[in-house]
Amino acid sequence: MSKKQDTPEFKSNETWRILKNVVIISIAFMVQFTAYSGAANLQSSINAEAGLGTASLAAVYAGLIFSNIFLPVIVIKWLGTKWAMAVSFVTYMPYIAAQLLPRFWTLIPAGLFVGFGGGPLWCSKCTYLSVVSEAHSKISNISAEALLTRFLGLFFMIFQLNQVWGNLISSLVLSSGDNEAAVTALNESLIPELCGANFLPSADAGDALQPQPPEKIQMIVGIYLACMAGAALIVAVGVDSMKRYDTGRSGSGSGMSGMALLVVTLKLLIEPNQLMLVIINVFIGLQQAFFGADFTAAFVSCAIGTGTVGFVMMTYGVADAIGCVVTGYIAKVTGRLPLLCTAAIVQAGLFVSILTWRPHPSEEYVLYVIAILWGLCDSVWIVQINAYYGILFPGREEAAFSNFRLWESVGYIIAYVISPYLRTRAKTYLLIVMMIIGIALYFVVEYRDRRAKKKLEEKKKDLYTIGCENFAFQNVE
């Protein structure tokens, strides 16, 4: 029986349509996280009292852990990847609205709701990119692996611009007019003593960080809610259904019941390669949360002022966005391992700087240098490790990316839970240990994967040789 309906033929210009979908999804995520990241980066500064801001962010990632285990493959099966993205965008809006009345009973439930939507959102994005990479590969004869890395690089380049726009909005709003709360409340002589590696949020935030005027928060909330509504509309109107490209595909979300899909995710969770990638995944989330919450509070808000947080995070976002594209192309020449080793060395240097440098208002430029280097390192972690999941677990993309986000979320939770109670120095030491262990175990996975592929190639070669010998023998007969 013909299977032509299972393998649709695309015209050569379909590659441009695929690229259009990737770009539109990337823009939608950028707009969405312009709002969310802008609000999240301010939590450790504007809602510092009793650790409310970081507690709400911990709730986000606690919800995301539950979501990543139980929801993505089921939601994607019910709604499809396109509508899973659009609907998930909406779940972030209550958290932004809750900034108007920041209390534990408003921010914590709203944070959990963000987490519930985050699992299907990120998993559907990764699945869509994986599937269109396969479709593009059939037309262009470029390997799906290379295309997925390029698409992820393009996505994160555009996506990371959210750090530019979201933080630019917050900084311009907070710094506008005669807002004395935009600068630090500390006397200049106290800054080297209380800020930086010595900063302890639960003890020092009240002295260094000033509450922001309500009208400033209201203006930020209104802009951010408009961004989120726009993001959902962009996906709903501008993105093609994935059904156009995944006909005949046998991924982890194809042809299974919701319970069967859940089983796929849980089974992958305990595979040896996945278990050994846990620490590097946790580190990725931990270092991102540390920079967005602890670094900005201890080095920026404490020493300079909350009005500067957005500008520093904007610099970080630009570097991250550029790095996502540049490192994607460098990886084609050098491979993943040299890039990851370089990122680890630079990241280690940043950790040493945090431990030894004492911030001072006259050395504000150092904050921007750290932000640039940190953004470049982060671009290597998120692109290369994320892409490796699509390569390591082919045909099980939904489950694989779900697990990636799950363990990354654990890193965020750890960072936000310990943030109010440990000094910046102690948290930096934790990051160093996690990075060393994570990289070491990642090398083990790379070795196991390459050895397995080599054995598979040798087996295929042996089978081919045996087949040729049998054919030659039959000819002699």
Comma- or semicolon-separated keywords:
477 residues, mainly alpha, 19 helices, 78% helix, disordered N terminus
**Oligomeric state of the chains?**
single chain
Unreliable parts: 1-5, 250-258
- Main beta-sheet annotation: none
Strand share of the residues? under 5%
**Helix-strand string:** HHHHHHHHHHHHHHHHHHH
User: What's the number of helices?
Assistant: 19
- Name the overall outline: globular
User: How many angstroms does the end-to-end distance come to?
Assistant: 35 Å
> Roughly what is the average pLDDT, rounded to an integer?
83
Helical residue percent band: over 70%
List the helices and strands and how they pair.
Elements: H1 14-40, H2 43-46, H3 52-70, H4 72-90, H5 93-97, H6 104-140, H7 144-159, H8 162-175, H9 191-194, H10 201-208, H11 214-238, H12 258-269, H13 272-276, H14 278-301, H15 309-334, H16 336-356, H17 364-392, H18 397-418, H19 424-476
Structure description:
- The chain has helices at 14-40, 43-46, 52-70, 72-90, 93-97, 104-140, 144-159, 162-175, 191-194, 201-208, 214-238, 258-269, 272-276, 278-301, 309-334, 336-356, 364-392, 397-418, 424-476.
- It is mainly alpha-helical.
- The longest helix is centred in the last third of the chain and has 53 residues, at 424-476.
- Residues 1-5 and 250-258 have low confidence and may be disordered.
